[in-house]
Amino acid sequence: MTTKPSSTHRPTLDDLERRVAEDRSRPAYGHDALITCDRLVRIFSTDGVEVQALQGLDLLVREGELMALVGASGSGKSTLMNILAGLDTPTAGAARVAQYDLLAMSAKDRLRYRREVVGFVWQQTSRNLLPYLTAAQNVALPMQLSGGRGPRGRRARAERVMELLEMLQVADCRDRRPRQMSGGQQQRVAIAVALANDPAVLLADEPTGELDSHTAEEIFAAFRTANERLGTTVVIVTHDQAVANEVRRTVAIRDGRTSTEVLRRSEVDAATGDERVVSREYAMLDRAGRMQLPAEYMQALGMRDRVALELEPDHIAVWPDDSETRDGETRDSAPHDGRRD
Ligand SMILES: Nc1ncnc2c1ncn2[C@@H]1O[C@H](COP(=O)(O)OP(=O)(O)OP(=O)(O)O)[C@@H](O)[C@H]1O
């Protein structure tokens, strides 16, 4: 690896003071994000066995985003969602949503957080709605429970209920109980319930998991409507590639950490004038400079244990470890003669 010759210049007291002042004035990690997870850890202990469900997960979500979280089974998605929903507490790290510190909330703040700051929609349609209440009563309930906030009085609440049911195209279900509705209708009513108190964030854990692909598309459109019309920030955990392809940003979780993310943007073809979506995958880099290489890249090049790095003017090259084949040789500016990238 090429390294710069170390400087013999010793910092003076003034230099050190200036560095400390610069560090202090630097904005904190995630200062402009609505959701900040900073080195989040969640360890479960069952019968003396420890499972590290989250292993230092970093995630920033900006206000107004509509994004998806994907990952293999057991990667930690639901653990993260339960923490963001205020249902579970992390073991270590930091998690902040709309100024609420999720590790240091009092019981009273936690209750308010769950009623007014986040709304959630779960995969099991039966978990989202009370079976003995009609759609309209289900949507009105969070407003009644939250007391002070939101529309006051029966009439104002009834108007808000109808606005939400109409926006989500289930106004005709207002007087039906969940068992009198289809799975898709139930999930749309569940979104209305989650939006009742105008939360900053809408969280959904596999909301289309129990639905056929056509209905899943309609449910995804309902989340988009909430995001575009109400400005609600939406985070959806999904296995559904079609849903993941529809959002601008998809973050992948692997082994309890965010590993890669795909960003999509629309581009207009200069020749034809047609609009097309261009996507690009990025690896996550933490503040200490750590990143995870995609497993398939490592497999393809037989990389393990250590790799050789090379700083180029505009990128960093990564090579498989060739120290044994090059036994005795000294590495200068490139692992082999000439460039290999
Ligand atoms: N309450 C718990 N007690 C013990 N271990 C748990 C608990 N909840 C989750 N885990 C473990 O933590 C890890 C992450 O689980 P999690 O449910 O967050 O994964 P997931 O990505 O949501 O998976 P899936 O897609 O299957 O729902 C798994 O190894 C799981 O067994």
TrEMBL record:
Alphabetical UniProt keywords: ATP-binding, DNA-binding, Nucleotide-binding, Transport
Residue span, ABC transporter domain: 38-280
Ranges of compositional bias, category Polar residues: 1-10
CDD domains xrefs: ABC_MJ0796_LolCDE_FtsE
One Pfam family per UniProt: ABC_tran
Residue ranges occupied by any SpoVT-AbrB domain in the UniProt entry: 280-323
Ranges of compositional bias, category Basic and acidic residues: 11-20, 323-341
Keyword ATP-binding: yes
Alphabetized SMART domains for the sequence: AAA
Transmembrane recorded as keyword: no
GO molecular function, one term: ATP binding
InterPro entries (UniProt xref): AAA+_ATPase, ABC_transporter-like_ATP-bd, ABC_transporter-like_CS, ABC_transpr_LolD-like, MacB-like_ATP-bd, P-loop_NTPase, SpoVT-AbrB_dom
Protein known as: ABC transporter ATP-binding protein
